[in-house]
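Practice problem 4.
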């Protein structure tokens, strides 16, 4: 969150907006640091970060008054002294550049940015207690939240060894046999171990326990999740659930197809069998409905969407926190797919989409997918999802991260900008051509567009009337004046962000 510009964003001693939220906290601090500030610093560090503003009172709920800080230098000195005191906060989390003194209407305020801590540094404790940010308040972390934070501090979550699990009784050997065939096809039959026990050691499902004197081989948690029998998985992960549902319409609540781990149709489902059953269903539900005239053919639409959906499915399964409180859920609707998994992203949204960095939560599951060519070690999933949307002029992919409840949602749209406009307002054939033309051209002049119409839609004045209607509805915007005026589609801030990331990706590729 950026520092607040009080002149621009507030402009009054008493105000109601901006108000305290998941990322904003106001506190009084006339001459010393408020004691509760470290609870907020802990909660922001353990969730999604935020901004603390000292010198603001809250006389009544959601009504704020700027009272100022009388001795800001002394307060900041105290802040940094405590920031370096491990009995106050586990680790220093504030840098000099994170603190700013603001003067507004004669009152001085201190603004402090708190960034989310790296997953390996969490939890950040304040005076021995762990706090989480919920709505506009700081709350003591629950048992499940603490368990998640401590699990996240490990680099390799699913390589932990299990006690009292046996590969021949707890794994689905039919799935292992199917995996072997794919591995032999990829690597050659002679290079793949013939015995199941040796194959499991080779692919990392069984690993030697080097902490024990007998150094026996034990099963990894990732291996159990990937190949395990459903009830065996439930013995270790009692909340394990994988769900895929397809709907006939976007707004429907009743599904027309469902794949659910553990139900009567899939009694022994694990990650591997779920992937094999669900991927063909996802791929089959893509209609190549955008093939139009010679100038507006989208030949790559189906292939691009299949690739994007596959990447999202694998990403969902590799990065899920399987001790979480919710199921992995995949909704397949006519206009979009939505992939939901427990666990927040270990990298930023932009880093995911650009493929700058990969921080895999479950390295064993990722390795098992990679051995048979389903995933790649390089962070390529995000760029493929982004490229599918950009190449086919689809609505931008949406990534929602709930840092409080530790949930990630990725929505991939199957529809383009024009289809979304059709849903919201009725377009006549002339307007549909104009929108399609704008989708294909980043910028264009009216005269060139009218020329490319080849007199299919009437006179210049007739087309101009429909064109002005789209301008009035703010579906098109203009740039420049007079003969140099050009037009383009109005874009949301999210779409502009996608375009910016794509430009950066192209620059990186050229370099």
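Answer key:
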């Amino acid at each position: 969150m950026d520092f607040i510009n009080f002149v621009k964003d507030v402009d009054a001693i008493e105000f109601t907006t901006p108000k305290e939220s998941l990322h904003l906290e106001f506190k009084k601090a006339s001459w010393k640091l408020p004691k509760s500030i470290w609870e907020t610093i802990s909660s922001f560090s353990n969730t999604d970060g935020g901004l603390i503003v000292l010198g603001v009172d809250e006389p009544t709920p959601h009504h704020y008054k700027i009272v100022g800080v009388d001795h800001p230098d002394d307060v900041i000195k105290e802040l940094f002294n405590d920031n370096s005191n491990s009995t106050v906060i586990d680790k220093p989390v504030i840098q000099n550049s994170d603190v700013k003194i603001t003067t507004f209407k004669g009152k001085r305020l201190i603004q402090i940015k708190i960034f989310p801590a790296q997953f390996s540094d969490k939890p950040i404790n304040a005076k021995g207690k762990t706090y989480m940010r919920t709505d506009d308040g700081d709350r003591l972390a629950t048992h499940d939240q603490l368990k998640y934070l401590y699990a996240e501090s490990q680099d390799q979550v699913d390589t932990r060894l299990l006690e009292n699990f046996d590969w021949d009784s707890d794994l689905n050997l039919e799935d292992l046999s199917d995996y072997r065939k794919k591995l032999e096809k990829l690597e050659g039959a002679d290079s793949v171990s013939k015995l199941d026990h040796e194959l499991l050691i080779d692919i990392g499902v069984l690993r030697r326990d080097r902490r024990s004197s007998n150094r026996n081989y034990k099963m990894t948690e990732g291996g159990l999740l990937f190949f395990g029998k459903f009830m065996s998985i439930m013995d270790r992960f009692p909340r394990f659930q994988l769900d895929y549902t397809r709907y006939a319409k976007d707004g429907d609540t009743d599904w027309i197809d469902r794949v659910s781990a553990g139900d009567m149709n899939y009694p022994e489902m694990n990650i591997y069998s779920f992937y094999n059953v669900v991927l063909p269903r996802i791929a089959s539900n893509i209609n190549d409905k955008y093939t139009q005239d010679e100038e507006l053919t989208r030949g790559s639409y189906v292939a691009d969407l299949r690739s994007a959906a596959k990447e999202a499915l694998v990403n969902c399964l590799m990065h899920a926190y399987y001790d979480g409180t919710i199921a992995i859920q995949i909704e397949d609707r006519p206009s979009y797919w939505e992939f939901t998994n427990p666990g927040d992203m270990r990298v930023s949204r932009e880093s995911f989409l650009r493929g700058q960095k990969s921080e895999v939560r479950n390295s064993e599951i990722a390795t098992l997918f990679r051995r048979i060519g389903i995933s790649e070690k390089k962070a390529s999933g995000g760029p493929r999802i982004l490229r599918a949307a950009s190449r086919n002029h689809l609505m931008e992919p949406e990534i929602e991260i709930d840092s409080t409840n530790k949930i990630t949602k990725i929505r991939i749209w199957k529809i383009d900008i024009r289809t979304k406009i059709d849903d919201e307002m009725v377009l006549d054939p002339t307007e549909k051509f104009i929108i399609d033309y704008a989708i294909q051209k980043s910028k264009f002049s009216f005269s060139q567009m009218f020329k490319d119409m080849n007199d299919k839609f009437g006179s210049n004045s007739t087309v101009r009337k429909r064109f002005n209607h789209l301008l009035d509805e703010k579906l098109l915007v203009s740039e420049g004046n007079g003969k140099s005026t050009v037009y383009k589609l109005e874009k949301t801030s999210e779409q502009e962000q996608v375009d910016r990331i794509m430009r950066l990706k192209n620059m990186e590729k050229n370099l």
